[in-house]
């Protein structure tokens, strides 16, 4: 498997790229060569067996796959669509994108369109790889070496009326046996705000690999509402990483929804690097059959008077396996930290499994932090109550399951 990556890296490096980008790619490949694929003996991966990925062979996806507008219509926002960049099998597809005129200075563009321009260099060179560094995970290192395209969202200082940005990543019917490495950069400057939807969907049920990394920089008093929705095919593999750096009084509202993929992992990290910042991470995962869905989160409080809230909920059935590993780190300088972390799981079968590990590491003495986790089944008393009102056990279970998950959708 690693030979395939080396071959693709050689082809990527052979292209015409700026010197800084070549160095960035080489550093990513060197890091991956040094650490290799993660194994069960690695603490951050001890519940996540990626053997099905390492035993498979993937090739780079073609750039000319035809997808009709009707095929992606169910994934759009209809009349409420603001800006949409559509990527098919990792390649930007202008014909399926919606790109209205934006205010001067606002950039929503594919990475491939701006990476060689002076403006693109000024935006990308000091940031790409500085938030989601190659050391984050082996797959982030691999992404640095092999990424082909992705999205760039840049909102200058003071802009608050930017339309919702929809980043739609489509795996087509031709995606079976292929891999796509995607890199996204979101930069929101002082006092600006925007809503971004990062949306991964599939038109096929084949076996393929999507490896994505998203880097976010929030300036002072900036605000980002960021949704990441994963709806891959049930035989697919998706590894995704989000890394956020927050300035003074900034606000990051992150929501992750994972429904598809045979193996789906999401690593989310936020660094509260300025006082008064707020970070909210919420997530919902629904796993069935033999799916494995893994959420790793880390919130680092480095400055005083910052707050963080984290709530992840999962519903599992069949032989599904879910992993939650959440970490809140409070450094000695981060006095007056207010943090709360919760993971709740609902098990609907005898063979589903959850491994949950909420963590607090606190090195300051004036803080208010809590964490907790629950794993359980539906209670019999509410089911009995519903049945006594004429609602059968199947419908009653559906109603209670919906009620459990609905908190994350309001």
Characterize this entry briefly:
This protein is of the alpha/beta class. It has helices spanning 2-13, 19-35, 51-54, 69-72, 111-114, 118-124, 138-146, 380-388, 393-406, and strands at residues 59-60, 83-88, 91-92, 107-110, 151-155, 165-171, 178-188, 193-202, 209-218, 223-231, 237-246, 251-258, 263-272, 278-287, 292-301, 307-316, 321-330, 338-347, 353-362, 368-376. It is globular, with a radius of gyration of 21 Å.
What does this structure look like?
α2 (19-35) packs antiparallel against α7 (138-146) and α8 packs across α9 (393-406). It is globular, with a radius of gyration of 21 Å. It is 20% helix and 40% strand. Strands 1, 4, 5, 7, 9, 11, 13, 15, 17 and 19 form a 10-stranded mixed beta sheet that branches. Strands 3-2-6-8-10-12-14-16-18-20 form a 10-stranded mixed beta sheet, with helices on one face. It has 410 residues and is an alpha/beta fold. The model has no long low-confidence stretch (mean pLDDT 94).
């Amino acid at each position: 498997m690693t030979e395939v990556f080396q071959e693709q890296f050689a082809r990527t490096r052979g292209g015409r790229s700026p010197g800084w980008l070549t160095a960035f790619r080489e550093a990513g490949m060197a890091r991956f060569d040094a650490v290799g694929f993660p194994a069960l003996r690695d603490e951050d991966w001890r519940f996540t067996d990626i053997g099905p990925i390492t035993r498979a062979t993937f090739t780079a996806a073609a750039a000319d796959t035809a997808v009709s507008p009707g095929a992606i219509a169910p994934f759009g926002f209809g009349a409420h669509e603001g800006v949409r960049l559509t990527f098919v099998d990792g390649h930007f597809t202008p014909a399926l994108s919606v790109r209205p005129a934006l205010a001067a200075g606002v950039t929503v563009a594919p990475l491939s369109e701006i990476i060689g321009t002076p403006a693109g260099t000024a935006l990308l060179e000091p940031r790409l790889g500085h938030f989601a560094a190659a050391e984050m995970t082996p797959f982030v290192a691999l992404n640095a070496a092999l990424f082909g395209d992705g999205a760039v969202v840049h909102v200058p200082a003071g802009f608050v009326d930017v339309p919702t940005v929809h980043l739609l990543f489509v795996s087509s019917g031709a995606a079976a046996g292929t891999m796509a490495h995607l890199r996204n950069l979101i930069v929101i400057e002082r006092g600006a705000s925007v809503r971004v939807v990062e949306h991964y969907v599939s038109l096929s049920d084949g076996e393929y690999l999507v490896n994505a990394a998203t880097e976010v920089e929030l300036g002072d008093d900036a605000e980002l509402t960021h949704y990441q929705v994963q709806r891959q095919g049930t035989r697919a593999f998706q590894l995704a990483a989000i890394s956020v750096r927050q300035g003074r009084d900034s606000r990051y509202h992150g929501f992750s929804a994972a429904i598809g993929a045979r193996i789906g992992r999401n690593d989310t990290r936020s660094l509260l690097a300025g006082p008064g910042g707020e970070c909210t991470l919420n997530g919902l995962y629904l796993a069935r059959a033999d799916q494995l869905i893994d959420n790793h989160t880390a919130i680092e409080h480095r400055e005083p008077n910052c707050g963080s809230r984290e709530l992840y909920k999962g519903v599992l059935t069949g032989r599904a396996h879910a992993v939650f590993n959440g970490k809140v780190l409070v450094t000695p300088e981060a006095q007056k930290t207010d943090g709360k972390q919760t993971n709740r799981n609902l098990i609907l079968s005898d063979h589903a499994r959850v491994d949950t590990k909420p963590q607090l590491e606190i090195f300051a003495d004036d803080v208010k932090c809590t964490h907790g986790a629950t794993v359980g089944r539906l209670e019999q008393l509410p089911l009995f109550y519903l049945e006594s009102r004429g609602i059968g056990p199947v419908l009653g279970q559906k109603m209670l399951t919906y009620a459990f998950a609905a908190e994350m959708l309001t």
